[in-house]
Specification:
Helix 1 runs antiparallel to helix 2. The protein contains three helices and four strands. The two termini are about 15 Å apart. By secondary structure, the protein is of the alpha+beta class. Helix content is about 25%, strand content about 20%. The protein has one domain: Histidine kinase-like ATPase, C-terminal domain (Heat Shock Protein 90), CATH 3.30.565.10. Strands 1-2-4-3 form a four-stranded antiparallel β-sheet.
Length: about 140
């Protein structure tokens, strides 16, 4: 991760949960021989986080459907999951005026792309401020 990523005024709980849901989904579908890769950087006026897995991927005509509540691409793939994780993640990201989209990974798999405007503000008056460093820190550690 680049050390110069900007600070964002966000609701840390919402974005940690959103990113957690995306990561849980990627790990669930990625083969153990191909680790999930997370990258972050700036693109124009946005912070962009990419979560890349090498799992079975999603047919192009169903990519948007993975963000629909209770949608499961193929019940025979996994007995885990309720079909809510990516829908909830998208809602939390959109609450910050961001986007959460999926695209095929070249060579197979799925890439989920989270974009947040660098001018984003936390939703609601009681939101906690977070930094990219807090999002990077392992659970239970100080930033």
């Amino acid at each position: 991760m680049p050390e110069d990523l900007p600070l964002l005024d966000v609701d840390a709980g919402l974005l940690v949960r959103a990113l957690g849901n995306v990561l849980e989904n990627a790990v669930r579908h990625a083969p153990s021989s191909a680790p999930v890769v997370v990258t972050a950087g700036r693109a124009g006026g946005h912070l962009v986080v990419r979560v890349v897995d090498r799992g079975p991927g999603v047919p192009e005509d169903q990519v948007d459907a993975v963000f629909t509540a209770f949608h499961r691409l193929d019940d025979s793939r996994s007995e885990e999951g309720s079909g809510l994780g990516l829908a909830v993640a998208r809602g939390f990201v959109e609450a910050h005026d961001g986007t959460l989209e999926a695209e095929g990974t070249p060579g197979g798999g799925l890439t989920v792309v989270l974009r947040l405007p660098l001018t984003t503000a936390a939703p609601g008056p009681a939101a906690d401020a977070a930094t990219v460093d807090e999002a990077r820190a392992p659970a239970g550690s100080a930033p």
